[in-house]
Design brief:
By secondary structure, the chain is α+β, with helices and mostly antiparallel strands. The chain has two domains: 62-313, no CATH class; 321-467, no CATH class. 19% of the residues lie in helices and 38% in strands.
Length: 468
């Protein structure tokens, strides 16, 4: 009889430990995932900036006083003055500039024949437009005198244009009608102005701070039809195309261009760019002033004493970095006279050490962050070869010693080329619109294409980073 095959099966009991192993494996995998997510969320991720070359043009606005070769011409007689020549026009010797109406008959005729006035010329309109622009630029809500002065100037200009139009076309007819007036002629050439302000004889060396106060500035606008006594101002004659602008200079201005012989400037009111000669002087009040010398363009400013301008040649170039990348860090300093370089080109100091036989000095290489010729800037930490309290000595004279204790700040950025933050000093040249231009090729400094932390406030020294 055949045997049952089932009798040959040996049953091995299952071990419950296999489920435990699976559970442990799952816990390990889950823990690794959680740890990875946590590590990723906690790691330092910062934005960086790549250093590039750049420049900034300084466009500071300066206020200047105009000085010209100008002469106030007195009236040749008493009576009502009426002008033939508009302001800003050049005249020759013998040109009829104005007439004197002793009894006022000419004025009465002009007033009664206003309808014979021809329309304003383009030049007249430009002059009115210029006055309105200047008022809009300097007007103050609390200074109503400026508004009254503007109204007076515009009224005088309108009267001037009217009288000149009538006189230039009807002079012979007026005389034939029995209206008597005397013409007065120029005795020299020049450019006409009808503004007198007492600055006509001022020299650059006589300028002082109080003269720049526009609120205190007073001028007399000579107008058609005004009654004038003999010897009173009749008009002003500008006798040269050469003129000067005197402006205040602070310490930074003197440092930037005090030694320059010329400057590139922009006359903002007339939108003119030109080159002007420069001289630095001391004014009557002991302050420093710049004197710009120009030739031409004076017709735009024949009646003006003040103007605004920009110095546009101050183009500062170097390495361009964001302002927020810059931070300040304190370093310990050692006088530069103690710095030596070994045969391998390494920089360091001779540190005083104690031996069994007394004291000696050993050459110690250390990282130097700056050497300004007076001090070397170093770090002193637990891992640094030099620490606070260490003494460095002169190699030639061991009695000449210096103990490390003094700290000084340096301005710089955090370089991250190596994946961690390294402080690099900078030399700031100019700042504008959130960016800074720093000097190129500074020792222990930055180079173009270096990567730096965009916001220095979010990192520390020696911090390992992941860059975005």
């Amino acid at each position: 009889m055949a045997k049952n095959n089932k009798d040959n099966i040996i049953h091995i009991p299952r071990r419950g430990g296999s489920n435990v192993a699976k559970l442990i494996f799952i816990i390990i995998v889950f823990g690794y995932i959680v740890f990875t997510i946590y590590s990723y969320s906690q790691r330092s991720t910062v934005n960086y900036y790549e250093v590039e070359e750049g420049s900034i043009v300084r466009e500071q606005i300066y206020e200047g006083i105009i000085l010209r070769d100008e002469t106030v011409i007195p009236s040749e007689g008493s009576g009502y003055l009426n002008y033939y020549v508009p302001s800003g026009k050049k005249i020759a010797i013998g040109t009829a500039v104005y007439s004197i109406d002793e009894n006022g008959s000419l004025n009465e005729y002009i007033e009664s024949h206003s309808d014979e006035l021809s329309g304003f010329t383009d030049t007249d309109i430009d002059e009115i437009h210029k006055d309105l622009q200047e008022y809009a630029r300097t007007a103050s809500d609390i200074d109503f005198d400026q508004l009254y002065a503007l109204a007076s100037d515009l009224g005088a200009m309108a009267t001037e244009y009217k009288n000149m139009s009538i006189l230039s076309t009807m002079s012979d007819q007026l005389r034939s009608s029995g209206i008597s007036f005397t013409d007065c002629h120029a005795s020299q050439t020049g450019m006409i102005s009808y503004v007198v302000d007492g600055f006509e004889d001022v020299e650059p060396s006589q300028v002082e701070e109080s003269m720049f106060d526009r609120a205190a500035y007073e001028r007399q606008q000579l107008a058609n039809g005004e009654l004038t006594a003999a010897g009173d101002p009749a008009y002003k004659l500008i006798t040269s195309d050469n003129w000067r602008i005197v402006f205040r200079m602070n310490d930074q201005d003197i440092a930037d261009f005090g030694d320059s012989k010329s400057l590139r400037i922009k006359l903002t009111d007339a939108d003119i760019s030109t080159t002007a000669g420069l001289e630095t002087i001391i004014g009557a009040d002991g302050n420093s002033y710049g004197v710009l010398s120009l030739t031409g363009y004076l017709t735009y400013y024949a009646d003006d004493r003040f103007l605004s301008f920009e110095i546009t040649q101050n183009n500062v170039s170097g390495l361009k970095i964001p302002e927020r990348s810059i931070t300040t860090k304190d370093f310990y300093v050692i006088p530069s006279v103690y710095l030596y370089t070994d045969d391998a080109g390494n920089e360091g100091f001779y540190k005083e050490v104690i031996t069994e036989t007394g004291t000696a000095s050993e050459f110690t290489v250390t990282d130097i962050y700056n050497n300004d010729g007076e001090y070397c800037y170093i770090e002193c930490t637990d891992s640094s070869p030099l620490k606070v309290g260490d003494v460095v000595v002169d190699r030639e004279d061991s009695t000449d010693r210096h103990q490390i204790s003094l700290q000084k700040p340096l301005e710089g950025v955090y370089n991250i080329n190596k994946g961690y933050t390294v402080f690099k000093r900078i030399e700031r040249l100019e700042s504008s619109n959130g960016y800074c231009i720093i000097a190129r090729n500074t020792s222990y400094g930055l180079s173009v294409y270096d990567h730096i932390v965009l916001d220095a406030s979010v990192v520390g020294d020696g911090q390992i980073l992941y860059r975005n």
